[in-house]
Write a structure and sequence with these properties.
Elements: E1 2-5, H1 8-12, H2 18-33, E2 38-40, H3 49-54, H4 56-70, E3 88-89, H5 97-109, E4 113-116, E5 127-132, E6 135-143, H6 145-154, H7 161-171, E7 175-177, H8 179-185, H9 189-195, H10 197-216, H11 223-234, E8 238-239, H12 243-249, E9 254-257, E10 260-263, E11 266-270, E12 274-281, E13 286-293
Parallel strand pairs: 1-2, 1-4, 4-6, 7-13
Antiparallel strand pairs: 3-5, 5-6, 8-11, 9-10, 11-12, 12-13
Length: 300
């Protein structure tokens, strides 16, 4: 995905807040770069780069990512016309040159994503549309790094359970999926689709934010309280298998991690016939996801 950068706030405050603003741009760049998304800045950015490089501290912030951004510049040399203000909704005032120029470039390139700085106060709607003749372009305006993080987590929406696993593994540092997880979830894709792929993604988010800290020992909460929080957050239960079940059917919960056979007891119940097993491995400081398919045998 490509995100066109809204420079309006940068230009407006370039004489007062340049260092702070470029630190925020660097955070936005990092947010996108770790996902292999692109931050695109106009090649005619109205900033004197010599001013930046004269400030050593500012140059240290800018230099590492500026060369990468330059590869994905928005080319203003290719001909384009400024769009008619009457075609923009919500309305833009006619003195907002940089905003009008950016929207015109979006229309030229059929680009639907803009990222703005968190304190942007003149281009602050979440969505704009440009209607010209029989064509309409809807543009999403994401304001600030926090909203950008949230947008990137859920977009593009996963199309199957495997993509949910891949996205969760990329997003959450302490959640890893075993080969068995990917193999077993395929047969339950239709059931999980009914449950909701984004809802499943939020299950792994809860594992990362609620369950992982408990197993790592970073919280004083009791396990029962963590289970309660997990239930409140996801509307799902996770529980431990009984010793009786593990003695009789534990082998069904085996998974290979780093060349070793590991048994998983904790499992999340999704729908009637989907169970996702997991285990915290201290040596790797992460939660591994194992069997993610049918309801396994129990001793009951």
């Amino acid at each position: 995905m490509k995100f066109y950068f809204n420079e309006n706030y940068l230009i407006k405050y370039k004489n007062d807040k340049l260092r702070i603003i470029f630190k925020e741009i660097k955070e936005i760049y990092d947010c996108l770069n770790k996902r292999n998304y692109k931050l695109c800045i106009k090649d005619n950015l109205d900033i004197d780069m010599n001013t930046i490089y004269k400030d050593r501290n500012l140059a240290l912030v800018v230099a590492p990512f500026l060369k990468h951004i330059e590869q994905d510049n928005i080319n203003t040399n290719i001909s384009y016309n400024f769009i008619d203000l009457n075609s923009i909704s919500p309305k833009i005032e006619d003195d907002k040159y940089y905003i009008i120029e950016l929207l015109s470039l979006c229309y030229r390139d059929s680009n639907e994503l803009i990222v703005s700085l968190k304190n942007e106060d003149e281009f602050n709607h979440g969505e704009y549309s440009i209607s010209k003749e029989s064509n309409e372009l809807k543009i999403i305006n994401i304001i600030g790094r926090d909203k950008l993080e949230e947008y990137c987590r859920y977009n593009p929406a996963p199309k199957n359970a495997k993509e949910v696993f891949e996205k969760a593994q990329n997003e959450f540092n302490h959640i890893k999926f075993t080969k068995k997880a990917f193999e077993t979830v395929e047969s339950r894709n239709d059931i999980i689709k009914q449950y909701g792929f984004n809802k499943l993604f939020n299950v792994f988010k809860a594992l990362e934010e609620l369950v992982y800290p408990f197993f790592k020992g970073d919280t004083r909460c009791s396990h029962s309280y963590v289970i309660k929080l997990f239930k409140e957050t996801t509307s799902l239960d996770y529980s431990d298998e009984s010793d009786l079940t593990m003695n009789k059917y534990g082998y069904q919960r085996n998974v290979t991690i780093n060349g070793k056979e590991v048994q998983m007891r904790y499992h999340i119940k999704i729908k009637n016939d989907v169970r996702i097993y997991f285990k915290y491995i201290k040596e790797d400081d992460c939660i591994y996801i194992g069997h993610s398919g049918k309801h396994l045998d129990t001793a009951k």
